[in-house]
Amino acid sequence: ETLHDGGNPFVAPGGRGREGGRDSGDTVEGDDGGDKRRISMVGKVEVVARSRMKRQLREAVAWCSNEFGMVVADHFYEAVSHSLELLETFPFIGQVEPLLEDEPILYRSLVVHPLYKLIYYVEEPMLYAVALWDTRRDPGMMRQEIGDDEGEIEG
Fold first, then answer.
1. pTM of the full predicted structure?
2. Partners of residue 133 on adjacent β-strands
3. How do the pLDDT tens digits run along the chain, 155 residues long?
4. How buried is 105 (Cβ within 10 angstroms: 0-12 exposed, 13-18 middle, 19+ buried)?
5. What DSSP line would sit under 9-46, residue for residue?
6. Across-strand partners of 27?
7. Quick check: 4 and 47 in contact, CB under 8 A?
């Protein structure tokens, strides 16, 4: 299995310097004038794929292989892998996940296929990919399943 789950040095040369006119520790006020959320302009993060996400990817690839063949399954796997690689450099490319906005962790999502989105959160210098969500599922289940992610060990 070649699922990308880290292992490379992802701190930008020179550490956390200024990029794009903001200091890496800057905060910005939310659009609603509410809480401040930390933003970062650090070069790269290390991606850690949690066990749930790895399991869901294996299940999705197996289903795809059974339904459409190995070529399509390989394309799907490569699309997810490519998305994880993009997140290494652009960890905030995904939108804040609307179904999980009230959770204590700021979850984001990135559409990796018309039927799947990757759910993740960033705690620099790490990015945790916690789920590969099938968008055909009941959206109400997302909070129940992902909200209990605390303490899940990668494996």
1. 0.70
2. 117
3. 334 444 332 223 333 332 333 333 333 344 444 443 445 455 699 999 999 999 999 999 999 999 999 999 999 999 999 999 999 999 999 999 999 999 999 999 999 999 999 999 999 999 999 999 999 999 989 988 887 655 444 44
4. middle
5. --SPTTSS--BTTB-TT-EEE-TTS--EEE----S--E
6. 38
7. yes
